[in-house]
Amino acid sequence: MEKQSATEAILAAKEEKGLTFAQIAEAVGRHPVWTTSALLGQQQMSEKEAAAVAAVLDLPDEVAAQLQRFPTKGSLPETVPTDPLIYRFHEIVQVYGTTLKALIHEEFGDGIMSAIDFEMDIERVPDPKGDRVKVTLNGKFLPYRKW
Amino acid sequence: MEKQSATEAILAAKEEKGLTFAQIAEAVGRHPVWTTSALLGQQQMSEKEAAAVAAVLDLPDEVAAQLQRFPTKGSLPETVPTDPLIYRFHEIVQVYGTTLKALIHEEFGDGIMSAIDFEMDIERVPDPKGDRVKVTLNGKFLPYRKW
Amino acid sequence: MEKQSATEAILAAKEEKGLTFAQIAEAVGRHPVWTTSALLGQQQMSEKEAAAVAAVLDLPDEVAAQLQRFPTKGSLPETVPTDPLIYRFHEIVQVYGTTLKALIHEEFGDGIMSAIDFEMDIERVPDPKGDRVKVTLNGKFLPYRKW
Amino acid sequence: MEKQSATEAILAAKEEKGLTFAQIAEAVGRHPVWTTSALLGQQQMSEKEAAAVAAVLDLPDEVAAQLQRFPTKGSLPETVPTDPLIYRFHEIVQVYGTTLKALIHEEFGDGIMSAIDFEMDIERVPDPKGDRVKVTLNGKFLPYRKW
Amino acid sequence: MEKQSATEAILAAKEEKGLTFAQIAEAVGRHPVWTTSALLGQQQMSEKEAAAVAAVLDLPDEVAAQLQRFPTKGSLPETVPTDPLIYRFHEIVQVYGTTLKALIHEEFGDGIMSAIDFEMDIERVPDPKGDRVKVTLNGKFLPYRKW
Amino acid sequence: MEKQSATEAILAAKEEKGLTFAQIAEAVGRHPVWTTSALLGQQQMSEKEAAAVAAVLDLPDEVAAQLQRFPTKGSLPETVPTDPLIYRFHEIVQVYGTTLKALIHEEFGDGIMSAIDFEMDIERVPDPKGDRVKVTLNGKFLPYRKW
Amino acid sequence: MEKQSATEAILAAKEEKGLTFAQIAEAVGRHPVWTTSALLGQQQMSEKEAAAVAAVLDLPDEVAAQLQRFPTKGSLPETVPTDPLIYRFHEIVQVYGTTLKALIHEEFGDGIMSAIDFEMDIERVPDPKGDRVKVTLNGKFLPYRKW
Amino acid sequence: MEKQSATEAILAAKEEKGLTFAQIAEAVGRHPVWTTSALLGQQQMSEKEAAAVAAVLDLPDEVAAQLQRFPTKGSLPETVPTDPLIYRFHEIVQVYGTTLKALIHEEFGDGIMSAIDFEMDIERVPDPKGDRVKVTLNGKFLPYRKW
Amino acid sequence: MEKQSATEAILAAKEEKGLTFAQIAEAVGRHPVWTTSALLGQQQMSEKEAAAVAAVLDLPDEVAAQLQRFPTKGSLPETVPTDPLIYRFHEIVQVYGTTLKALIHEEFGDGIMSAIDFEMDIERVPDPKGDRVKVTLNGKFLPYRKW
Amino acid sequence: MEKQSATEAILAAKEEKGLTFAQIAEAVGRHPVWTTSALLGQQQMSEKEAAAVAAVLDLPDEVAAQLQRFPTKGSLPETVPTDPLIYRFHEIVQVYGTTLKALIHEEFGDGIMSAIDFEMDIERVPDPKGDRVKVTLNGKFLPYRKW
């Protein structure tokens, strides 16, 4: 069973059972964002986490096995995403990329925000003019090593 | 005077005077992230905001005029950024793009997070294991119109 | 059943029954343009709308289920379309893109025309020198948020 | 004097004199959209039209000469535009391209909407929930010739 | 049955029966170039033309149905063709593109040669130093509309 | 003096003197298409031909010298041309490329139409429904050598 | 049977029988380089040549039929080859391309080395410091036609 | 003085003095192909070789200094060359790349033909049917190291 | 059996038997890095080495046969890798590429580090602040041949 | 003074004074690899380090100022490098990328080798069969954070 088939089986079972990602995450004992990215094949689950997914979704062992394999990451088929929701994040990097560079550098010096020692959260912020999506990116600052 | 020359003049004056982006933003009366992106040519300033920049940096009127022109946005010379700091944000879109899609859709339905009715903040989060960069993206949810 | 198979089944049933997109749209209770884009996998139908499609085309429930899933949008396999009809619209963006930018900015200020809070219409305009195609794009103006 | 320099001289003079594209168009005797695209180097003006531009903007003869040269069209530096306003039109082609193909074909048969025998209009549509941009594309239908 | 399968079935039957494109074209009642491009999935046949193809090649009705569907045009898998015969035509556009632009503009004014109201012919020109291929492109001149 | 500067000087002088490409070609003693492509830097002129250009356009010797240098060919800045007139020829290769391959192969066997031992002509064909552009491509057939 | 399947069947049979390309070429009566490129789907064999391949490799008639079809040439899946052996030849074109242009032009005038009226040979040159590969490219010079 | 300026100065002096690449190579004491590629900025000359170039072409010391700097190699501005002469070599890699791989591997085992320990020669081969260009590539075979 | 299927069978068997790459390498009698790259289809094994793999993993003869075939090298589907682990190595080439060029040239003169006569090693370096990955690249210096 | 001009001034001064990168590094008090990459504009120097460079090379203060600015990293103009020395490292990533992924994952679990908390060394390894280049990459392992 390939990674993509495992993902499809998971999404089909989730739809059939009427579960949300948050409910599956609770069963797994992890944050919904991390859990979702793992179900979409971008993270490696522990044996226990994978078993919880298989249990809550009534899926066979090979799905659980697949979730424990080390994933080849990168979830998009194109360099510039065509889906409008995902494109907006690409646009933010295009428009605000140099701003991020300038401000992080001014505050921290030469280095990067890690995308590995990294967490992400997604929240709904109620607003009378229309609710808002709030995405929080939180990564360790890594200074360039000098030697 | 072209947009790029204006940006270079601003950055040179900022370096010479030893000002931070936050200090210029205070003079402008705007958030440091918005102000920085405007100074880097990605936003349009009002006459008063542009005048404040020129004043605090001792720059000629044509710099202020340039800051009020409508900008052609997109700050990066390549589709896939080569600078490691900026690339990490591209990587986050690659790795977590489908996760963002799945979770925003589940919560809000078919639509996008606006990158126009949008704010961004960048903070330093102290951490004994190494301080962290926290970037908050906050955009209005826009549902797809049906007609 | 995948999105593409659902689309193929729909187009085959439509051809066999000799229905137009407008007739299906009437059954659905939506505009023909929106309905067509939903049938081609670019919009999300409600349960009732999807059931109407299945009924009018005698298609199984899984087609209706597919029409209610959230679509990964972007209908073209290439960045520059090769089909001449679709390419003409790409050419219009190439030739008139800066004109659109200049005039919308002059009228509205810095912002965009939304492609989400957006409607499109396609009409035939009779003309003795050859009928004309009239495409109307209608999107909400979204000003850049300052903060 | 090159085309790009002529465009820059025109935009600078327009800004200095505080004229709108519509006012220049009136002087030229053409629609504002056509006039703007000509000023941006995408159309060929007649001698009289070019003279009107030079007169209203106090520009030298070589600008008028440049406006009468046949333009190499295509106003964007990249295939996928990075400016968010222009990108939205690219996105519309991506998301609605196959819809345009299906509906134009159903109505007219195999052929295209001309981008040459073509007019475009841009209007502001007042709306209490936020004004809207209405762009009308109007091109002659050209059926594929059989031989 | 997909377009590509129809094309493959047609070419296989043509090879088996030892027919030339010109012979099929005669049965169809169209020019060999147009007929060939239709058989290769780039044109839309009428019911009668499609029936003639099915008859002369002993092919089932679904091939005839496929030939009447509206084709997504563009016959090449790459932007720059790798097949040497087809590449030479790409090279002609590369080397002579600006020449075509300059001479058509000088003769006709600003506009294009239509690729829709268009005919092509291919002939063998006997020559003692080696026979020559003569390709004639014949398209209606379309002047840019001013409005 | 670089090739591009020579081309610009030639076009400026041609415009000032009000000469057509055909008139320059007559002075050179060559076909207008070949002459135009040489003036645009795609062919190598003999000393006598280059001198005729310099004489008829009152241009200095270094322009004549440049016209005799061996040109790096390829007149277009992009793989997919953005100018609509030139794009139409690219589109013809996209849509009719496999047709050209199939028919030339059927008539001649495995080989190509030379783009080197090659001539091109451009004519205006009067037509009551709108004059037509006729472009003739004429190249030697070169069979693949077997060894 | 498709071209690729024919190639795979040929290579499998060759491996099983322990034949070299040179031995198959001898059976065909052609040079090993030409024969190899034909077996890899880049040349068109005569009926007799194809029959010899089928005989020496014990392959069915449809393989022989495939070898006589006209091939769509271009054997590499990417523009820049990733296989190191093939990349070295790409690198030679990158590094020595302008050298080839300068020297062929100086010796022959404006024109090309044909890749159609063309032969290639590959030899092993014994050398005490390590044997060498010698590749000979031999193509007819084709001067640009003037008209 | 940059590498490109040095190359231009060399070519201009060569043209003015009416020297061939072979004559310069003789002065340098190297093969004409190597010398030409060095003059075009693709090889590093010794002090004595560079001095010989400067002497025979009456060029200043800084040209000689430039010829001794280590070159960033790669002489072509595009991945797929547009100049027809250079493209033919690209086409040979496209069409015969897998043939080169198969035959070199059969003869030598897994490895490559070096493009570093490498020589190239270009000769004119007289032929009554039209002279031929013969290009010889000669590189050391390098077997893949196993460890 | 294709190369990719062989790789998948090998990885599945390795997972099932709970073997490490190092253990398989020991059975093969080669270094773990070389063995891993061979198992991933990038090297050619001898008959004995391939048999050892088949034996230790209980795999059929055709897997062993596949491992002895000459591999088409290049293990990544994209030019810029999207997997973060592999991308870091791409980034190192981007950031340190000119440094490698400058220092190798200064030490060795004009030439390259071979990627063929080449070994790689990967080690874990314990470190109280977090263990480190040490990758050693070791290739023969090949000076550019002058001729 | 821009970054590139600073780099050029540094390299020119280094050549004129006959210094090696190692000698400059000694003056700076850093490793030669780090120092070289800083001189090539890929690292940020401290005030003292930059002053040492200016002193040892007799360069003005603005070069020292430039070396302290935060660099936009990425030293190569193309995605696939054309210079053969740098390409070999790209090839190593292509050929051994999946091997690096498999072995680092097996040893460390899901994560990456940092290219930020990273050191590189380049050594000459004498070898009677030809000296070898040894490049050591040493980066901290960063495990993927789970949350």
TrEMBL record, chains A, B, C, D, E, F, G, H, I, J:
Coiled-coil positions: none
Enzyme Commission number(s) of this protein: 4.2.1.104
Taxonomy, superkingdom: Bacteria
Gene3D superfamilies: Cyanate lyase, C-terminal domain, lambda repressor-like DNA-binding domains
One example GO MF annotation: cyanate hydratase activity
Catalyzed reactions per annotation: cyanate + hydrogencarbonate + 3 H(+) = NH4(+) + 2 CO2
Enzyme class: lyase
Entries under InterPro entries matching the protein: Cyanase, Cyanate_lyase_C, Cyanate_lyase_C_sf, CYNS_N, Lambda_DNA-bd_dom_sf
Keyword annotations of the record: Lyase
Residues covered by the Cyanate lyase C-terminal domain: 75-147
Residues forming the catalytic site: 88, 91, 114
Cross-referenced Pfam families: Cyanate_lyase, CYNS_N
Purpose of the protein: Catalyzes the reaction of cyanate with bicarbonate to produce ammonia and carbon dioxide.
Homology family: Belongs to the cyanase family.
Stated name of the protein: Cyanate hydratase
Gene this protein is translated from: cynS
